[in-house]
């Protein structure tokens, strides 16, 4: 968290939080959701300002209830999640080594890989409370080059560099939030 945010929290500790105004979409884009977007259920307008994106990413965290938020100075802005709290991009360098990077620019080391009934690929890391990230759909070709799938595409294995072969596990999209203990819509949870 930025020092300026910590200072603002100390100076104004009781600023009410807000919900519904910020979304992380299925492709890892941060979106502003004005009242019209919230009322219509649309994802909102993508944020393109690099400094603002950096500020959001540095001050993105989770509370004790599994609700993800952006700490905007003294105000906590709860985030609507398009799917998971993290979205990763998968790339391979010229030598074939794979790398996963989350929407905040951090490295993501997979410990498990899942496929949902819609063909979405999810990775979980090996932390005590595993982070879960959906793979950006533009990277499905890279994924398939390193995976062996059964005919129904709901099982198989994924080869993570030459170090690890991860079994592909089936998961229902509707079960992901509960399994990984996050709230996809804090606005709905607080209503």
- Total domain count: 2
Distance from first to last alpha carbon: 28 Å
CATH class of the largest domain: Alpha Beta
The number of distinct β-strands equals 14
Find the structural class using helix and strand composition.
alpha+beta
Q: How does CATH name the architecture of the largest domain?
A: Roll
The largest β sheet comes out as:
8 strands, mixed
Q: Would you identify the regions where 5 or more consecutive residues have pLDDT less than 50?
A: none
Total of helices = 6
Q: What spatial form do the alpha-carbon principal axes imply?
A: globular
How would you state the average pLDDT, rounded?
91
What is the helix content? 10-25%
Helix and strand element order = HEEHEHEEEEEEEEHEEEHH
CATH topology category name of the largest domain? duf1285 like fold
Our Rg estimate from Cα atoms comes to 18 Å
Order of strands across the main sheet? 8-7-11-10-9-14-13-12
Tell me the fraction of residues in β-strands, as a range: 25-35%
What's the short version?
The protein has six helices and 14 strands. By secondary structure, it is of the alpha+beta class. The strands form two sheets. An eight-stranded mixed beta sheet has the order 8-7-11-10-9-14-13-12. A six-stranded mixed beta sheet has the order 3-2-1-6-5-4.
């Amino acid at each position: 968290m930025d020092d300026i945010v910590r200072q603002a929290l100390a100076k104004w500790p009781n600023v009410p939080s807000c919900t519904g105004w910020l979304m992380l979409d299925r492709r890892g884009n941060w979106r502003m959701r004005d009242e019209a977007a919230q009322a219509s259920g649309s994802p909102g307008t993508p944020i393109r300002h690099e400094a603002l994106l950096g500020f959001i990413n540095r001050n993105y965290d989770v509370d004790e209830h599994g609700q993800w938020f952006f700490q905007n100075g003294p105000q906590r802005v709860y985030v609507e999640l398009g799917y998971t709290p993290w979205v990763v991009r998968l790339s391979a360098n010229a030598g074939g080594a794979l790398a996963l990077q989350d929407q905040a620019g951090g490295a993501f080391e997979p410990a498990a890989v899942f496929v949902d009934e819609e063909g979405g690929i999810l990775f979980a890391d090996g932390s005590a409370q595993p982070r879960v990230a959906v793979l950006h759909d533009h990277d499905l070709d890279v994924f398939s080059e390193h995976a062996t799938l059964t005919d129904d595409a709901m099982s198989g294995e994924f080869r993570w560099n030459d170090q690890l072969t991860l079994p592909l596990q089936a998961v229902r999209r509707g079960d992901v939030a509960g399994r990984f203990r996050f709230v996809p819509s804090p606005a709905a949870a607080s209503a």
